[in-house]
Structure formats: C-alpha cells, structure tokens
Amino acid sequence: MRKFNIPFLFVLFFTVFSVNAGVVIGASRMIYDGNKKEKSISVENPDAYPYLMQSWVEDASGKMIKDNAPFIVTPPLFRLDSKQKNLLRIVKATNALPQDKETLFWLNIKSIPSKPDTDNNTLQIAVRSRLKLIYRPDALIGEIPEQYADKLVWKKQGTVLTVTNPSNYYINFMTVELNKSKVSEGGFVAPGSSTTFTLPANLSSGDLSWKIINDYGGIGAIHHANI
Q: What is the pLDDT of residues 93-111, one digit of tens each?
C-alpha cells in the first residue's frame, strides 16, 4: 500500500536515489477576467504512482489569506492517480476587488508523492509550484499589457535602474538589458508603481532593451529606450 508523507517536504535515503518527472501544470500564469465566474487549470500526473495535491491562493506579498479570501480553489486537496488528469477551479468569492487596475495573487499548487512500495533507496520531493494569478477587472478586458510596454518610464541613477509603470496592468519582464548586458531575468512592475534593478558598477548609460511576457506565457517583441 502506498502512503503519503504529508508533514515532510522531502525524504532522502542516501546511496541510490531516483527523481521522476512530477505533476504537469497546464499553464505558467493565470489571467482571471472580471466577467468570469471561474477559471480552470489542468494538472496531470505522468508518473507511475499517485500524488496528493494541495492548492491555495496567497496575496501579492506571498502571505496566506486566512479571512475573506477573494478566490477559492476547488478541490483544495485531492489524490491524483497515475496517468490521470484533473482540473483545479479558481472561483471568485468577492466583488470587493479594485475595478480600475489589475490585482496580483499567487496560486500555489503542491504535489506530494506517495511512498513507493520498494526496498530501493529513493529521493522523494514535494514540489510547490507558484503561479501568478492576476485579476483583470471588466473595464480592462479587451486590451493587452504589451500595448503599454513602450510607455514605461526608465531612469538610471548610478547603479540603480528604476522603471515606472503608468498603466493599469502588470508588466512582466522576460529580460532587461543595458548595452546588451543582462540586467535582469524576470521581474515585474505593478500598475501605477515602480520597480528597481541593480546595475553593475561599470555599466554606462546607453541602449536599454526589454522583452515582455504575455498573458499566455509567450515572449513579445524587443522594446528599446535610451537612458
């Protein structure tokens, strides 16, 4: 009989170990349109043993939302058998969300492997995937964040590069480069807010370029600015 070791993130037996593919999640991010009652994401188990799946939503700072959670994930806890696929439904539980700009949450999906029925030494790892869950109110549906990529305001002061986002959308970066030197991989700037990047001390002003990640996880065109 297989057992789930729920309290442990991993169990390690030295000498010989095996690591398997793990649960496959159907998207790298989720955009929740304000006119929808729910949003779904698939989880699939390609392995030969089951997983215990646990899911929950955190706020933008990564803290658990204990009271009046704006979103409910169902089912929050279930068994995903070998070669099986299931859907997680994210349901909006409140209308008290900003209607003039996007709001960021984090969808957490943790897969806990069962204990193999074998005497072989194994490495068991519980993997937590963390996906951006962005609520997009009705008033903003129909446009895309990349429309505003060229409206970002960049400013360099010494070794600090600041980007200000005047739009109502989250702008997610794939890369940021200055004079073809990589400044950052990833990162984002919230609506009406600023984000800073630290530059190498010897990196001078010049051509700044950046790429945006779109709603589907794809990479957009290169954008440029002189700073």
A: 998 999 999 999 999 999 9
Could you identify the residue written with the tokens 């859907």?
A: 87
Distance, C-alpha 7 to centroid of its chain: 24
Cα gap 191→197, rounded to integer Å? 17
* Overall number of domains in the chain: 2
| pTM for this prediction | 0.86
Tell me the pLDDT tens digit for each residue of 157-206.
999 999 999 999 999 999 999 999 999 989 999 999 999 999 988 888 99
Paired with 188 in beta bridges are 172
The residue whose two tokens read 């950046």 is 210
Residue 197: which CATH number?
2.60.40.10
Domain co-membership, 91 together with 130: yes
Which contacts qualify for 65-70: CB closer than 8 Å, 24 or more apart? 68/93, 68/94, 69/93, 70/94, 70/96, 70/97, 70/105, 70/135
- Amino acid letter for position 210: W
